[in-house]
Amino acid sequence: MSNVGANPISSVGMRWNQTVDSVRHDSGKLARLSNALTPQSKISPQQLQSTQALFKLHVQEQAHKLGQELGLSEAATGRLMAKAESAIGNIVSLTFNPAIRGDLTVNKRDFKEIVNMANAKALESLVELSKTFGSADTSPQVIPFKDENGRIQMTVIKPTESFETLVLRGGGAKGIGNGAALVEYEKAGLLKDLKSVVGTSAGALTALGLASGMSAAEFKDFADRTDIADLKNSPKNFKAMYGSMVGMSAVGYGAGKALSTMDEVSSNQIHNCLSKPGNVTKLEQACGAGLITKEELHHLEGFLQKPDFSGSREGKMVTFGDLSAMSKVFPEFKELTLTGYNATDSKLSYFDAKTAHDMPVAIAGRISMSIPKYFASIEYDTKTGDGKKSWVDGGVGANMPTGTVLGKAEQAVKDARNAVDQAAKAGDSQGIRRASEGLAQATDELGKLKSKTLLMTFDEFGRADKLMHNPKLHANSAKRISEDKTNFSVVGWIAGNTNMKNAHKLDAQHVHDSGPNVAVVYHGKMDTLDLSASKRTKGEAALEAKMRALEFAAARQNQASHEVRSSAEDVVANFSQTELEQFVRAGPPDLAQFSRPGVSDIDAMSLYSTALEVYEKAQERLRPAI
Known about the structure:
This protein is an alpha/beta fold. It has helices spanning 11-37, 45-69, 74-94, 96-99, 108-133, 178-187, 202-211, 216-225, 238-242, 256-274, 279-288, 294-301, 320-327, 361-368, 403-426, 429-451, 463-469, 474-483, 488-495, 500-514, 535-557, 568-573, 577-585, 601-622, and strands spanning 2-4, 42-43, 106-107, 141-146, 152-159, 165-168, 196-199, 247-248, 335-342, 347-351, 378-381, 388-393, 453-458, 518-521, 560-565. The strands form 3 sheets. Strands 6, 7, 8, 9, 10, 11, 12, 13 and 14 form a 9-stranded mixed beta sheet that branches.
């Protein structure tokens, strides 16, 4: 499966962000020159008026281009422009006007923030206009064709599916943009089918929040209220709460507050859910149906009482098994996977309900955030029979932890390629054919898996975009990203992973290969260790993340995917209920569609018959539900 071109609607976000970047770049030179010649602390009425006029002009231009791309009539274009004018007025009233002081000037420190906010709201308005006036056909299409061997195959084109798995890259304070980006993905419906979340380092905190039943908006609100600089400290009663379970090295910040925060979030989320009328009954019914075990039910019932964080938390914390059980009954909860690097044995571990069923997710989250020498490493026994180990940041082994999601499918493709090579060396024509079919199937399965997996990486000040979109720079960009202002040879040696640089090159390879299923999270000026950045800097980072997320969401919503199927039964079996209804509602095929120059009457009839068979199979499958 691969993505094919988006319709004009999807370009609105990219075009607006390009406009903003261009204006910012050109005007920035003039502003710096002006500041050097005439230092000032406020924006004059003339400058403000000029900026507002330029802003209005650019929004009007983009709205007009949108109308042209959508092929709107003159009357419809007029309605679109009227709505755009109304939106412009509202944006100016909400952003520029409140900042104007009594002398009609604007504080210069606030001016950039005002313009950024206006640009973000303009992008939201343009995206909304594209949805209101655009009418993209999202019904599935089936196009029969003859392959090189004369066999009839079918290309199936339909909208890309929403994501089922979310993989979050580590990045320390750069994670400030995660919440803002996720809110836009959620609004666009990209996360409505989400079932599992995977995270490393800073991504672990985000993953834990979402897996614990938080919506994207709830997570953003939580993140906005959390002082990330305080997470490196530890509460006074930390040893009383967690000392019986974990130990810490003497080097680095204890970050006990990070552990206790994740403990509070996960525990309170389950408590709040089970406190709602009827929800315990749902758990009991799930247990009776064999979806969860009696032991899991019993442990979850312990969260009916309000969590107490004044004493020992041993045996009272949310485990991977708890979240897995909750996800089977309450869809807002997700399967969770977090990473940790075992510095004792020099190997990467994935913690989830299968490998660490009874491990507290907050401890795993704290392990995953243990940036070597900055945060203290964790001494912990995972109860797998190996005893207590020293654990550091999961990013030491995989900063983009796709292995647990794509690893088996990627290995299947490698094995299939080897089988083709071996058959070719042996001169076995039948073996080559069989191996090639196996390779095609394995590649198709990997493609399907990738299309349902969203990777969230960080902009890294432009390096991620170069990696994703310029294959010629792949090797160089992978190296640059792996360095990330850090000497990974030294960090890897400290953490016990001398192969850390190669691990991060593999991360970069995964980002590059996942193409349109990678969302780049922008983070302004924030870098990995900028935990104490100012409120203004954090706000600018979140706003930039929001604007770029709007662009990604608009593009993703209008992407289509195509796959080749060999039988009508196979085509229909891969339609969802909604897709079946849309396909049948569009009506049966028309023979005239296939009677075109260069196609014989016999071939046209064969293609038409195949299309008609698919339609009738779809009707047959849909009939019981009608």
